[in-house]
Amino acid sequence: MLLFDFLLAGLVIGGIYALISIGLNLQYGVARVLNLAYGEFLMLAGYGAFWGVTLISAPPLLTMLVVAPLAFAASWLLFRYVLHPLLKRSRDAGKREIDSILATFGLLFVLQGAAQVAWSGTDRFYSFLATPVNVLGIVMGANRLLVLVAALLLSGAIFALLQLTAVGRALRALAASPQTAPLVGIDVARYSAGAFALGGALAAIAGVLLSTFIGINPTIGAAFTMKALIVVVMGGIGHVLGGLVAGLVLGMAETMAALLIDPGLVTVINFAIFSIVLLWRPQGLFARDPGTGAATPLRLGRHAAGALLLALLLLAPAFANAYWLSLLVNILMYIALATGWAFFCGPTRYVSLAASAFFGLGAYAVAVLAPDYSYPLALAAALAIASVLSAFVGLATLRLSGMYFVIFTFGLATLVREIVTWWEFSVAQKAGRHLFLSITTTHIYYQLLALCALIIALWLIRDKSRMGFALTALGADETVARQIGINTVALKIATFVVSCLTMTLAGAILAPRWSYMDATVAFNPNTSFLTVIMALLGGATSVWGPMLGVIPLVLISDYLSVTVPNYFSVVLGLVLLAIVFLVPNGLIGLLRPDGLVAARERLAGLLRGFAQRLDGRRPGSSGTQPVPGAPAAPSLPRPRQAKRWLRAARKGEP
Amino acid sequence: MTGAALCLLEVSDLSRNFGGLAALDGVSFKVVRGSILGLIGPNGSGKTTLLNIVCGRLQASRGEVRLAGQPMTGRSPEVVCRAGIAGTFQLARIPDALDARDNVAVAAMYGRRRLDVATARAEAERLLERVGFAGALSARADALAYFDLKRIELARALACAPDLLLLDEWLAGLNPTELEAGIALVRSLKDDGLTIVMVEHVMHAIRSLCGQIVVLNAGRVIASGAPEAALADRDVIRVYLGDGP
Fold this sequence. Notes:
The complex is a heterodimer of chains A (about 650) and B (about 240). By secondary structure, chain A is mainly alpha-helical. Chain A has helices spanning about 1-30, 40-55, 60-90, 95-120, 140-165, 165-175, 190-210, 220-235, 240-260, 265-280, 305-320, 320-350, 355-370, 375-395, 405-430, 440-465, 465-475, 480-485, 490-510, 520, 525-540, 545-565, 570-580, 595-615, 640-650; strands spanning about 130-135, 140, 435, 515. Helix content of chain A is about 70%, strand content about 0%. A two-stranded antiparallel sheet of chain A has the order 1-2. In chain A, strands 3-4 form a two-stranded antiparallel ribbon. In chain A, about 50% of the residues are buried. Helices cover about 40% and strands about 25% of the residues of chain B. Chain B has a 6-stranded mixed β-sheet with strand order 6-7-8-3-9-10, with helices on both faces. In chain B, strands 2-1-4-5 form a 4-stranded antiparallel β-sheet. Chains A and B meet through helix 17, helix 18 and helix 25 of A and helix 3 and helix 4 of B.
């Protein structure tokens, strides 16, 4: 009987997973936006239901009829006026993915921070239909039954919409091939916006349903975005039925694991299943075609500002006070992480979210081994473990690319953290580690500086050697690279291991800074996100790029956390959004000759477009606007295009 | 034993299935060292599949490829390249992350020779001149003419220093003047001692360059031999022109 109870509970949460994965599938599969703020719509709708019940005692199902259309409209506006212009400006699929990740990540910060400010971080519960009902001999809450039925009905309805109607056929065509869809008369801009909006509405519905049996707080969104992503990938991008099955399976697997094995290992098992599925069938359990990673061009930046900076940094401890020194340590830590990350991920365009795993390994190895044995031994152990782990993840790059690799590395980081947590709790029986090492901040500072210098030197040497050329060729077109005799497997794994060892060393060096450490501190996933954001912000394809992203972001977050602690994440998110819009090639792009001019033009363009919209004049009807990825309609060259063409033609001459 | 020495590439009983479809079905032929073999056939007859297997991009379902007696089947593209097979892609694939010269130079840095950066760049300049590249050395793919992209493709393949060169419709899409220049270039490569297998639809080029051709249809060899004789074969005329009255 107990088993059935758990199975049903699993089905309920699985129904929610299925619903949100279908919504995300519409957004990612059809509208081609990886919306990291997806879960925030769920969170806001959950709050809507809560306030509806508590303030005007409106039943949640009535609230749903209001918030779902609201979410639809908000998503539509978000896509039409924020994301679509962002995607339209670049024809490179990899660039678009990075842009949409950065922009929606900023949005996530804004919405989450706003909710935190407005409603505080406490869980908001209300009671709705909490009466037991008897279904087939199993007693369950009526609210849970309602959620299960609603989720299944809605999933079925969306499936029917996609399979049976003309609109559904257009959406499926768009998911299958955005390039050819316009050729058969599908209005890509309209259907993309529609799919994105429908996805947002589904998230809102899921949020209302969820709030009937789970407390809502501002941070709930990100976890559900992650779950939805996992289910989408397991089910196959663009496959609704696959998502439904995968969602239910994931929900049941979670509850069964909690019942049969150990509640502490739920996440471990979750991600273990997911990793196996991903490695076994990267295209998803139900998809027919393998996913393809986008091979995109990259540029090597100029190496100018770095040397002077390094000289200044060497002298810093002599004149910096404790506050500035600790700020510098922060900056250096992220420079080591972001540069180490970009050492592999920049030229190859793989986005790894495993930085926290390697940083944490280094830090935790020192915390466990250094007090009882010695610091060098701890370092050696950390490097040994990290080498094995990074070689394993490096092997995964042979099978996975694009979004699949992102999610795999995130899952791996979570897996490592959960294993350490579980081991500390169940085997070592310790809640955390106390560190008393006689290592000063100045020591840490110089060690970090040496580490940064090492990785930058390695990068510079690589750029000058054959290996730099090989890596550029590999990042641009792996098939070509192999055909001209480059052993891409060895190259990728070697580069990835170096990249990960740098991050491990950063963790090991930083460890003495904490007097107390547990797994949640060492393996904080924010480390991964910040590393990626900083590197991409600065420009990951050149050696000086990452640090250009690190410095402003560390300074801004330091300043904001002191001056406006409450609005910290809102402002950080807005800054991030502004940067993504105005500086698309990373800050290093500004250092190029035409970088500043381009940024100014972009700002002027944005303002002009905004003013036109205020005037009510459209800058062109939605039906005829060129769409990212779609072939542009043939047209006569306009004066500006002609000028550009002439310039290009002139440059082509010897 | 002289037969083995003369024969550079030997393809025997090569088959490849895509699901239920047999793209290649028991294809066998030999290529004599220093000769040009033309591989022709209607679209979908398996020509590109065959080239892809020879250069290691695809695995064969059955059969064998040998280069100078060494088995190549099942080897990865980079191993095949180092054994001495290089080729061009049907649609020119020139990443614009690298400029024209470095696209060729990187093949000279790897390939069979592993030259250092400076030597490889000098070699790339030499090879680009050799194939008649007319653009700027520092130009990127998006700023170059179509024929120049094809020339970079060829120079990159040559930079691997192969014994066997595979050309996949390298002459397709050229205008009449460029075509004559292209044909002369391929002939001069043969005169330098290179063995070439070319997939081509331009019959004029096949007739004037190839000592021997293999005609594929639906994954099978339907004729082979000297171009004039093979092209006059009844089966070949039927698959190209349909049944006569």
